[in-house]
Structures are given as C-alpha cells and as structure tokens.
Amino acid sequence: MNYDEIKKLIDYMGTAQIDELEIEFPEGMKIGMKKNTNKNTEVSTTQIQAQPVIPNIQVNTENNVVKESKTCEEEYKIIKSPMVGTFYASSSPEAKPFVKVGDIVKKGQVVCIVEAMKLMNEIESEFDGEVAEICVKNEDVVEYGMPLFKLK
Q1: CATH number at residue 102
Q2: 33, 64, 77, 92: which could join 151 in a potential S-S bond, CB 3.0 to 4.6 Å?
C-alpha cells in the first residue's frame, strides 16, 4: 500500500460514520485508525513478521496537515517468498547454504529454494546487498509474501 492509498483511507475515515478501523493485509502490513474526539484522525502502521516499519502518519482533518515521522532508522530490502511452500537454505541436506548472514548477494543470485507441489523453485535475489538476517529456518513452511531475507 502506497502513500496515496493511505491518504485516501484517511480522507474516507474523516467523513465516515465509523470511529475505528483496523485492516490487516496478506503482506503482513497492519493499519489501524481511530477517531479522536477533537476531530483528529490518527493512523499507525506496523509490520508483522519482521518486515520494515512503515512511517507513522498523522493527519489533522481540520486543516488537512499531514505529518510523517520515520520510526525505523535503518531500512532493509526484503526478499519475500513468491509462493506457499517449504523453505530450503541449500540444494540438498548435506550441501552448504546458498547464503548466510554477512554474505554479499547480487541481483539474480539464487538465495534459497522453495518447494511447492513437489517442484523445487530457486528463489533469486531481487536486490544487491549484504544479508542482514535470514527470517526463516530451514524446512519451515512459508507463505506468499512472507519475508525470507533482509538485505542492507
């Protein structure tokens, strides 16, 4: 969800006859809005499953002032699972992992395998960067859009 879509939600919330709204998206983003008695609408967004934090946005509906404050000092590039399946860090149980924390990866480099319906799908990095965190364990079941790796 981008800034313009969030802004539209805020505008709608200001005119709607509801006092509170909470939305959770499949990608793990969660948005909650609650009207205050002084006609301010406050929106906070959080990330679930170790995704990067989206900035908090506060809107004063009386004079349409938008304030944005960053809540995360360092942002990461996230490699997400493109499908539901089983995560494998290496090509076989006795092989070394494709990547480990601290490794430098290039765009297009294979970083893991996700098995889906008996097919082994090589997952390639969408970014250049250094592996900061591996978000899942070997042989964990992963869902579509679930973070697999954080890159600096």
Answers
A1: 2.40.50.100
A2: 77
